[in-house]
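Hi R.,

Here's the chain you asked about this morning:
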Amino acid sequence: MSAEDPPQPPDDRDRPGSGADPFAALFQAFGGTPGSGLPGLPGTGGSGGQDPARQIAMAVASEGTSEPNVEPVIRMEYESLVRVAELNVADRTGLTVSRSGTLGVRPVTRSGWASASVDAYHPYLARMTGVPDGPVAGLSAFGPGGIEVVSGDPDDPMTDLSESWLSGLIAAMAPLMASVTTGTMVGRLATRNLGSYDLPIPREGDEILVVAPNVAAFADDWSLPAEDLRLWICLHEVAHHAVLGVPHLRAVLVDLLSRHAGAFRNDPSELQERLGDVDISGGPESLARLHEVLDPEMVLGAVRSPEQEALLPRLEALVAVVIGYVDHVMDDVGSTLIGSYRQVTEAVRRRRVGTGEADRFVERILGLNLTQDQVDRGTAFVEGVVDRDGADGLARLWSDKRYLPTPAEVDAPGLWLARIELPDND
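And the predicted structure, written out as tokens:
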């Protein structure tokens, strides 16, 4: 294949973390089985442990195996490439790339990325692990305080056993729900992500993470020049770090992501119906069935709430513009620095919108809609601004909070330009 031939996507079905069941990966990673507990995690039948979310994330990311350290020569190459990216992104955007003065890069393993990323994702994922909005038959509450059993049919000889067994098991899992959700989802992301900003989520600090084995595997899968892909990744990460580091944009985006994650509403009637299918007298098969019933998407709320529907237009518009802007900067800078830029870009951008349903679960929690239509929407806005007002017009995008475009303006960049020309009456 020549450098200009379109890259062909690999078959990702055998990739680590490609399965559809996060809990199955969790139990497998810790050497446990549904109902037998997770070794090392308190409240799940195993022995006590520390920071279960991080433990789970690292185990899922590594699939319970030992990962080789990133080679020193690879670390040094990334350090050199990030300096190139930092200078070029700062020059093209005029943005402050590093808030502390020094931008670092840390090439890591999959488990290393998972460990470092738990803190970034936990505040959002933990917010969606609230209690159901109503009672479930046999259960009065589901939350950090555990579960209180409500008396069932006194004429049913299985009532006491059923309620004791079921409530005890769920109560043991309830305090860990936020940790399990965060750990499994971050661990799954670690098996696929290339850097810190595969999802445009602001991060603390001035250190960029690059998942070295994933970058190397992606280069092999798509027959890409490894050195060109590494520079491309550095440009992508630095551009996102600069944009998401703009204080007012960061504050607005964090607020929207947090509110969206916290607005999930559980459906207690559906949970009741599914729990009613579990026959505890069935032995191990019943435990496996309970494991299926208590998957994150069921317990944590699969239905988008009215609050989320109200937030989505603003959140999707802002994310679309961030993606469109970063892609524009990448095209401007990368085409002059990377010989195979077109080939690498096509591969990475096809991959960006080609995630499976399991990965989409994380995006839906946060309200991130990284479809091709959303990407095209952001691209059209940026191109519309540049066509009408050039690079100077686009440079105003992040200069003031009031210049952040509304959902309607994202679809009509001329309206945005007209509004920002109006005097500020505040």
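The beta strands are 104-108, 207-211.

Let me know if you need anything else.
M.
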